[in-house]
Write a structure and sequence with these properties.
- The complex is a heterodimer of chains A (about 625) and B (about 280).
- Chain A is mainly α and about 625 residues long.
- Chain A contains 20 helices and two strands.
- Chain A has a two-stranded antiparallel sheet.
- Chain B is built from six helices and ten strands.
- The chains are: A mainly alpha (about 625), B alpha+beta (about 280).
- Chains A and B meet through α4, β1, α9, α10 and α11 of A and α1, α2, α3, α4 and β7 of B.
Chain lengths: ~625, ~280
């Protein structure tokens, strides 16, 4: 399409100084790795918090002497107190959703591989790309600082969940622990993150539309590129709304406005307007915050998982040694999910007090979004049908993704119904649903991506043995953690409870709660095998050639790791679709996208290679 | 490797499905008139979900078992898909999913698309951080005027009841909700500070209480007894302790309770709490 327009425009010489090369780098590959490192650090913080939460839920009141030393305020005498627990809930959710699930799949792998897979030398705006990472990093530092400047000795940060519902989040210190400076920093961090994501989204969209190499028509792009592109569009349209909402929330807290705070509130024994610490508020709507938040929040779910879907399709095809089944249907399904994703936010708010007729509309749209999701699943199964599967570690994780995506996604059929939300809303059933699909499945997509692209990024293979141990324990572990949470939800266990000891109806769940915690701790510890594998393989891994997996797309046509301009000055030319495996009559069972057409193909034209120009 | 993965996927599938099938941990017995239809809708949905889940996982296991690479030189099947299959599975899933969505509206509509029936017993619910306040209209059936300016927690006027209003003379407030059995109940839900949520698992009912709003909902309880009432929307530090009880009383016992003067009302509720045991689980 526009292959000619960009030639020689973005050529920049490799930098020589350490700082320009590794710190303030303009190279999309370095920036991609920076994003991945950020996610790898953030996920340790998030996981550690989940372990602390599980310890508190399973063994409430237990004295953990080490916690007394680490968190004298949050765990006085080593016993985790409720406000500490709730700040863990909030920070865990925020860090995982924003700084792990939004950074690694898109900013990390997307940044590194989108330009290479479309045959570009870099992103369209390298400086913008660098800025988007550094802005995001500032956001991360701000959220971490909320731990230390929470304005209350007994918390390690804000209390509000990752959704920060107003007016709890809007009232300030008067609403109790976790509503002071920590909450300001939480909002500021998210606002900064929004800016970073917007810069990134602009870059992804421009790069994909303008910088594809000769022959790389849209329908010849790998499905990963479609996923990153759609994700970028979602980010571009949804993050501004959260940014706006965040600014209004901050104004409510700091400038005495009343966007989300209604009149006549009586909080902690004080009526609004009767003391300087609680200025007069009137006319705000708590539900407005929920609309703004979820208008962003629901697309965010797809921002987290679409890149994982793309990577899964890509990796399944590669190791099935088979073309992706229904490429076109997969592209349409990605679009359908992205589009419908903007019309279903109200399913988070059925019982919020909004109109019950709106709820019904949102409900029917919500179940519609299951259709493209099911189409994707069918096509993944179709890709495996008649395959010759090579069970490498990335393939195991990609298959795991399919399994977990089904397991987590399918309960959306329950939660999406207005009637069934009455008992299910805000129970562990919801927790199980979104952790499986948005959390674990997305992460499995990223594990698959890591094992798959590591050889390209570092020129060495990761250990298959360690990778497989990592897979087996993690795969069984996440099922054992999150499936039992569904039945906890049936019994009625509410989310965001610091303890379950107050309620008789929850007591029979205790064995299950302990079981989940034990498995969770084992599974978390297993992740250190992955970290070890990563670091060890950078130095000691088996050397990888340009194309160790015998894959077909452009990143495998260049050296491992790729040179600074990706293709050593010669841009590849694309002649065919991205997944030409098992082509009858071809000498190998894979045909690279850069392989020129043979005489027979030109004459016969099997029509499967995407658009020709 | 392929066979091991298939077996693991199947075992996990079997384990997941049986966790729902054995019903060791399940909904508590329902006590509301809409619950039977809701539980039926849940059962239909969970059967569809279970079958779809199991079918997808069994198929996935089958693929990885059957199509693992073997030491031959055969290549995979070269196909780019089938438009016919795409159309079939799109239509089939669309019909099932949207069908479920439409079916899933009936209980919702019965509760939310109509006003409370005439003659409903009304309770005003005023939530505040970590405490429930229930405001009963008393014999006259009319709520006394409330005003946020009159709220005084230290004087135990949690809801700001205007004592000078004649309609307030016979009003009662308590942290326990007492409702009659088999008679529609209308709740008028308010909050003084942040969002709370009224949640009684046995009722199969949940509704946010939003400050600045008075949300009217209705339901009918059809089993007498004492049930735990929880807050199901994060409301702050002691959210997990924002607990109370719902008493569902025989009509006569309920009427007698509502007719009592203030001091006796309080002690009678204490008696009733002791009289009715919690359901056994």
């Amino acid at each position: 399409m526009s292959a000619e327009t960009h030639e020689a425009v973005h050529r920049h010489e490799p930098p020589t100084s350490f700082i320009r090369k590794y710190i303030f780098s303009l190279d999309h590959k370095v920036i991609g790795i920076q994003y991945i490192i950020l996610a790898l650090v953030a996920v340790i913080v998030g996981m550690t918090m989940s372990v602390l939460m599980r310890m508190n839920l399973s063994w409430p009141g237990t004295n953990w002497p080490i916690l007394a030393t680490l968190f004298p305020g949050g765990a006085p005498g080593g016993v985790i107190n409720p406000e500490f627990y709730l700040s863990l809930v909030t920070m865990h959710g925020t860090i995982m959703v924003f700084f792990v699930l939004t950074t690694a799949p898109q900013g990390g792998f997307g940044n590194y591989f989108l330009p290479i897979q479309i045959g570009a030398e870099d992103m369209a705006f390298p400086v913008l790309n660098m800025l988007s990472f550094w802005v995001t990093l500032v956001g991360f530092i701000v959220i971490l600082s909320a731990i230390f400047f929470s304005g209350s000795a007994s918390t390690i940060g804000p209390i509000g969940g990752w959704t920060g519902y107003a007016p709890l989040s809007a009232l300030g210190q008067i609403a109790g622990p976790g509503q002071g400076m920590g909450m300001n920093l939480w909002i500021i961090s998210i606002a900064i993150f929004c800016v970073g994501s917007l810069l990134g989204a602009l870059n992804f969209i421009t790069t994909l539309l303008n910088m594809r190499t000769r022959g790389m028509s849209l329908m010849r792009m790998p499905l990963t590129c479609w996923a990153w592109f759609t994700t970028a569009v979602l980010a571009l349209l949804s993050f501004p709304v959260l940014l706006g909402g965040g600014i209004l929330l901050l104004l409510d807290r700091l400038a005495g406005t009343s966007f989300f705070i209604p009149g006549g509130l009586y909080v902690s024994g004080i009526l609004s307007g009767t003391t300087p610490s609680f200025p007069i508020h009137t006319g705000g709507s708590p539900i407005l915050w929920q609309h703004l938040f979820w208008f962003f929040g629901h697309p965010e779910v797809y921002i987290a998982i679409l890149p994982g879907m793309g990577a899964t399709s890509h990796i399944l095809s590669t190791f099935a040694r088979k073309p992706v089944f229904g490429y076109r249907a997969m592209v349409f399904a990605i679009f359908a999910i992205g589009l419908l994703g903007f019309f279903v936010w109200g399913h988070h708010m059925f019982i919020s007090g909004m109109s019950p007729y709106s709820a019904m509309t949102f409900s029917i749209l919500t179940l519609s979004i299951g259709v493209p999701s099911a189409v994707k699943t069918f096509n993944w199964l179709g890709t495996l049908w008649g395959a010759r599967i090579r069970f490498t570690t990335p393939m195991l994780f990609a298959i795991g993704f399919v399994s977990l995506f089904v397991a987590g996604g399918i309960t959306g059929l329950v939660l999406g119904q207005t009637s069934l939300d009455l008992p299910m809303h805000d129970t562990y059933f919801v927790l199980a649903h979104f952790h499986l699909v948005m959390g674990v499945a997305s992460i499995f997509g990223m594990f698959a991506a890591t094992y798959f692209w590591f050889p390209k990024m570092f020129g060495r293979m990761m250990s298959e043995r360690l990778g497989k141990i990592h897979f087996w324990i993690t795969f069984v572990g996440v099922y054992c953690i999150f499936v039992p949470m569904h039945v906890m939800g049936l019994v009625g266990m509410p989310r965001r409870y610091a303890q379950f000891t107050e309620y008789t109806f929850l007591s029979r769940l205790h064995p299950l709660v302990v079981f989940v915690s034990v498995v969770a701790i084992i599974t978390v510890l297993t992740q250190f095998i992955f970290y070890f594998n990563l670091i060890w393989s950078i130095f000691k891994g088996k050397k990888a050639g340009a194309n160790p997996w015998e894959a077909t797309t452009l990143e495998w046509t260049t050296a491992s790791p790729p040179p600074h301009d990706n293709f050593a000055g010669v841009l590849p030319v694309v002649y065919r679709g991205p997944y030409e495996f098992a082509v009858p009559g071809a000498p190998n069972d894979f045909v690279m996208q850069t392989e020129p057409e043979t005489e027979t193909e030109r004459v016969g034209g099997n029509g499967h290679n995407g658009h020709r120009h | 490797m392929g066979r091991a993965l298939a077996v693991i996927i199947w075992i996990l599938t079997l384990g997941s499905v049986s966790l729902f099938f054995v019903k060791q941990w399940w909904f508590p017995t329902a006590i509301s008139s809409h619950a039977a239809a809701l539980d039926r809708q849940f059962l239909i949905t969970i059967i569809v979900v279970g079958i779809s889940f199991a079918a997808a996982q069994v198929a996935l296991g089958y693929m990885v078992w059957k199509y693992r690479e073997r030491p031959t030189n055969d290549r995979a099947v070269y196909t780019h898909g089938s438009n016919r299959l795409e159309v079939i599975w799109t239509i089939v899933t669309a019909v099932i999913f949207i069908g479920l969505a439409v079916m899933g509206q009936s209980v919702w509509a019965s509760l939310h698309f109509s006003k409370a029936p005439a003659g409903s017993f009304q309770v005003e619910v005023v939530a505040q951080q970590f405490q429930w306040n229930f405001h009963y209209a008393g014999n006259d059936g009319v709520f006394g005027r409330t005003d946020p300016n009159l709220i005084d927690d230290s004087a135990l006027n949690f809801i700001g009841l205007d004592e000078t209003d004649p309609n307030a003379k016979d009003d009662q407030t308590h942290s326990v909700i007492a409702i009659p059995v088999n008679r529609p109940v209308e709740l008028i839900l308010r909050s003084k500070d942040v969002i709370h949520n009224f949640w009684v698992p046995q009722l199969r009912f949940k509704q946010d209480l939003v400050p600045g709003m008075a949300i009217r909902v209705h339901f009918t309880a059809n089993q007498t007894g004492k049930y735990e009432l929880a807050c199901a929307e994060l409301c702050g530090q002691l959210h997990f302790k924002m607990k109370s009880y719902m008493l569902v009383l025989p009509e006569a016992e309920h009427q007698a309770l509502m007719a009592l003067p203030q001091e006796q009302f309080q002690s009678r509720i204490t008696e009733l709490l002791a009289k009715y045991p919690l359901p056994t689980y």
